[in-house]
Amino acid sequence: MRNRFLACSLALILGNARADLPGSIAALRGTGAGGKGNAQAASAWKELVGHGPAALAPALGAMDDEDPVSANWLRPALDAIVEKAGADAIPSREVEQFLEDRKGGRMARACALELVRRKDPARADAFLAKATDDPSPEIRRQAIAAAIAKAPAEGPARVDAMKALFKVACDRDQVDQIAKDLGKAGIKTDLAAHFGYIMDWSVIGPFPVPEATGYGVKFPPEDKLDLAGEVAGPKGPLKWKQVKTADPAGLVNLNKELADEKSVVAYAYTRIESAGEQRVVLRAGSITALKVFLNGKEVYGKNEYHHGMHPDQHQAIVVLKPGMNEILLKVCQNQKAQSWEKNWQYQVRLTDFTGARVSWKQGPVQ
Question: What is d(CA 117, CA 79) in angstroms, rounded to the nearest whole number?
């Protein structure tokens, strides 16, 4: 009788644990910046791991690409579950179904691929063989790396393979590797076009500011754009200047195009035509403080000076409307006390979430 009572009690406890799986996941998804929800999440994380392999698919489905904080809780939970239960316990059917659905979360599908690999490396390799255009950046990178490794060593077959991979490659190192390979075969590649850099701009400036306060000072281009008009400047009227950069990374050097001065602000303007509404990633590089406006609305800002510059260091998820879209940049410069602080430049491109160029046309900039 006692054993029967203990068995019933254990079944009831386990049943309650299973029923609480959504609650554990909800607690992890309730985390946020600055440690929000961390106390509850720590307990929920242990509970989630305690559910074992049955929690893998629900945890994958709970990952949100635009919520990296909760993903940082969920991702290690997957590893902990597998470490505890063993790779053989991974529910292959559910995880593979999740992986095959390209509409699923990009981070989550990359995690699903790793789960598949831990249980059956051959199935993971077979999946990658058809994933060079996958919408998950991590999966696409792995797939392209595998395709490069398997490409013929030389001859027309290798050239054809590299041409196909160039069309889908997004990561700069892989693109550079493929472009170099094609260059050896006498095939030129347009890296600026491939990466989606905006090459045509109108720029105006410099507008002087006290010390490095330009980020918070509003000048006329932020209120009204008049590309044909003049704006009062410290040494007389300022006019918009058309700039077409030839740099393969879309760099516009404002020291060269405007003036090599300190404690100033410049604006850069361009028009982009989109065939329809599309959600894209606006990626910018700037070694100085930067603001980005899309169709008159501020969509990004970073008040930081000379902490290094690299492509895509500034990213904003934006929506291009059908037809013409206006992009305005505010690029600041500080006092340039050191020689290495002289750089005053920017670059901008428009991509999907993998970093691949989206469809757009350059509009008139003057």
Answer: 13
Based on its alpha-carbon atoms, the radius of gyration of the chain, rounded to whole angstroms, reads 26
Cβ pair 331, 288 in contact under 8 A: yes
Q: pLDDT tens string for the chain (366 positions)?
A: 333 333 333 333 334 434 488 888 888 887 766 667 677 888 889 999 999 999 999 999 999 998 888 888 899 999 999 999 999 999 999 999 999 999 999 999 999 999 999 999 999 999 999 999 999 999 999 999 999 999 999 999 999 999 999 999 999 999 999 999 999 999 999 999 999 999 999 999 999 988 767 899 999 999 989 999 998 877 789 999 999 999 999 999 999 999 998 899 999 999 999 999 999 999 999 999 999 999 999 999 999 988 888 889 999 999 999 999 999 999 999 877 777 778 899 999 999 999 999 999 999 987
Q: What is the pTM of this model?
A: 0.84
For residue 220, cis peptide bond before it (omega within 30 degrees of 0): no
Six-digit token pair at 202? 């109108």
Q: Which two tokens stand for residue 348?
A: 């901008």
**DSSP bridge partners of 270:** 327
Q: What are the b/e assignments for 305-342, b being 16+ CB within 10 Å?
A: bbeebebebbeeebebeeeebebbbbbbbbebeeeebe
Q: d(Cα 356, Cα 144) in Å, to the nearest integer?
A: 13
Structural contact between residues 365 and 202, judged by C-beta atoms closer than 8 angstroms: yes
Name the E strands within 111-253: 200-208, 230-233, 236-239, 241-244, 252-253
